[in-house]
C-alpha cells in the first residue's frame, strides 16, 4: 500500500466508523419503535440521509489525493444528501412516496457501492468484501420495498431498520479494516 493511502487510512478511518455507527443507531431506532409516526420517520430518515451523505462526501474529498476511486464516496454522499432533502421538503406525502424514495435511494446507493467495491478489489484493498456486502444489502432491500409496496409502514420500518443495522455493522467492519490497513504499513 502506498504511503499516501496509509496516511489517509490512519486519519480518515474514523469517518467511516462514524458513518457506520450513525447507520446502526438509525436501524435500532427504526426497529425498536415500529409504531412511530410517519412524520417522525420522514425527519429521522431525512436527517440520517443528509448526515450520512455529508460524511461520505467528506471522506471522499479527503481521500482524493491518495485514493484513485474517491469519487464513488462522493457519488454515494450526493445521492444520500439529495434523498434527505427530498424527504425534508415533502414530509406530508404518503407512506408509499416515502417507500419509493427509500427504495430508489437504497438501490442507487447499492449500485454505487458495488462500483466502489470492485474498484477497491482491483487495487488490492482487502476490505472490498465489506463494501460489497453493504451494497448488496442496499439493492436487495430497495427491490423488496418496490415489489411489496402495499405491506404498510410497519414493514417499511422493519425493512429499513434491518437494512440500516446490517449495513451499519458491515460499515463498522470496513472502518476497522481500513484502520488496520493504515497501521500495517
TrEMBL record:
<dbReference type="Pfam" id="PF03729">
    <property type="entry name" value="DUF308"/>
</dbReference>
<keyword id="KW-1133">Transmembrane helix</keyword>
<keyword id="KW-0812">Transmembrane</keyword>
<protein>
    <submittedName>
        <fullName>HdeD family acid-resistance protein</fullName>
    </submittedName>
</protein>
<keyword id="KW-0472">Membrane</keyword>
<feature type="transmembrane region" description="Helical">
    <location>
        <begin position="127"/>
        <end position="147"/>
    </location>
</feature>
<feature type="transmembrane region" description="Helical">
    <location>
        <begin position="70"/>
        <end position="90"/>
    </location>
</feature>
<feature type="transmembrane region" description="Helical">
    <location>
        <begin position="12"/>
        <end position="32"/>
    </location>
</feature>
<feature type="transmembrane region" description="Helical">
    <location>
        <begin position="96"/>
        <end position="115"/>
    </location>
</feature>
<feature type="transmembrane region" description="Helical">
    <location>
        <begin position="153"/>
        <end position="172"/>
    </location>
</feature>
<dbReference type="InterPro" id="IPR005325">
    <property type="entry name" value="DUF308_memb"/>
</dbReference>
<feature type="transmembrane region" description="Helical">
    <location>
        <begin position="38"/>
        <end position="61"/>
    </location>
</feature>
<dbReference type="InterPro" id="IPR052712">
    <property type="entry name" value="Acid_resist_chaperone_HdeD"/>
</dbReference>
Amino acid at each position: 500500500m502506498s504511503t499516501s493511502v496509509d496516511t489517509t487510512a490512519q486519519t480518515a478511518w474514523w469517518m467511516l466508523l462514524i458513518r457506520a455507527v450513525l447507520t446502526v443507531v438509525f436501524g435500532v431506532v427504526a426497529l425498536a419503535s415500529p409504531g412511530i409516526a410517519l412524520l417522525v420517520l420522514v425527519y429521522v430518515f431525512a436527517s440520517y440521509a443528509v448526515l450520512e451523505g455529508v460524511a461520505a462526501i467528506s471522506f471522499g474529498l479527503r481521500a482524493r489525493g491518495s485514493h484513485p476511486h474517491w469519487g464513488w464516496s462522493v457519488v454515494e454522499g450526493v445521492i444520500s444528501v439529495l434523498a434527505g432533502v427530498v424527504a425534508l421538503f415533502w414530509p406530508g406525502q404518503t407512506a408509499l412516496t416515502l417507500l419509493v424514495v427509500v427504495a430508489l435511494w437504497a438501490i442507487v446507493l447499492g449500485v454505487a457501492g458495488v462500483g466502489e467495491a470492485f474498484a477497491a478489489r482491483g487495487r488490492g484493498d482487502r476490505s472490498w468484501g465489506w463494501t460489497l456486502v453493504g451494497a448488496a444489502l442496499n439493492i436487495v432491500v430497495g427491490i423488496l420495498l418496490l415489489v411489496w409496496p402495499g405491506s404498510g409502514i410497519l414493514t417499511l420500518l422493519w425493512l429499513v431498520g434491518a437494512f440500516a443495522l446490517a449495513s451499519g455493522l458491515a460499515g463498522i467492519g470496513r472502518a476497522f479494516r481500513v484502520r488496520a490497513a493504515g497501521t500495517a504499513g
